[in-house]
Amino acid sequence: MTPIRCCALVTRFADARAADSAAALARHLAGRGIEVLVPEEEAARLGEVAARFVPEATLAGATDLMVAIGGDGTLLYAAGLVAGLGVPLLGVNRGRLGFLTDVMPEDMLASVDAALAGDCARDERPLLAAEVRTAAGGTASGLALNDVVLQKRQSGHLVDFETWIGGRFVNTHGGDGLVVATATGSTAYALSCGGPIIEPGLDVLVVAPICPHTLSDRPIVVPGRADIEVRLVDRPDSFAEVSCDGRPLGSLAPGDRLIIRPAAARITLLHPPGYDYYRLLRSKLNWGRRAFDTPA
Fold this sequence. Notes:
The chain has helices spanning about 15-30, 45, 55-60, 70-80, 110-115, 190, 275-285; strands at about 5-10, 35-40, 50-55, 65-70, 90-95, 120-135, 140-145, 145-150, 160-165, 170-175, 175-180, 205-210, 220-225, 230, 240-245, 245-250, 255-270. By secondary structure, the chain is an alpha+beta fold. It has two domains: about 5-120 and about 270-295, Probable inorganic polyphosphate/atp-NAD kinase, domain 1 (Rossmann fold, 3-Layer(aba) Sandwich); about 125-265, Probable inorganic polyphosphate/atp-NAD kinase, domain 2 (Tumour Suppressor Smad4). The strands form three sheets. A six-stranded antiparallel β-sheet has the order 7-6-17-14-9-10, covered by helices on one side. It is globular.
């Protein structure tokens, strides 16, 4: 493992709790002789902390380790910065559930020290590459760690679309849209659509309709190397929006195509010593707890 001499911090500095944690970590790292990088856009919010402020676009390329402090949305944003660069990513939970940000605030300094010592478990996660191809010849592309989502543009209207997997026609759907999730993203939007929880080590995808009009239109699990294509059915007011990990990618109209396939890039998550995926699930989903186990 490459020695860590520089650490980048990514967080919502407007959130007081996250900013406090970032400042405490910056001081701790500086005390250990580790250079701290922070996006220059956040310089005014961090306060009097020894850090080098650099443009966010160059942040990932200048660091040996990135720490995301916040919720899973913050980590997903950070994942987009380090994708394909080989920079490991550690998540500190200052959000709500935190399936990806698995370090609690009270364990932050010890976990970062473990990362500096090379004692964290390295966990490579695949990414999805999404591309919108318009009938006019335009393209837009993006990467996703969790999911690629197609959603109707207008409230109160269904969107009708076809799915193709590996070049084979699957189904014609009517509903609010579609979630294509990695195993990592199976505990996110796809879960609320009735999809299964997939252990992250499995190379599969979840294809989950959003609020399908037909009750038999259920989520399916397909190979992780599959190419998935979505085409809108040519009907009046049939328009949809596409997003990657919650970031807008583009619009889809009849005649346009959404292509989703495995990305060449991957990211590396760091987990602190003692990390246990099933213990994480029990904690976040309150498994094994009965009503009378919870204090009144």
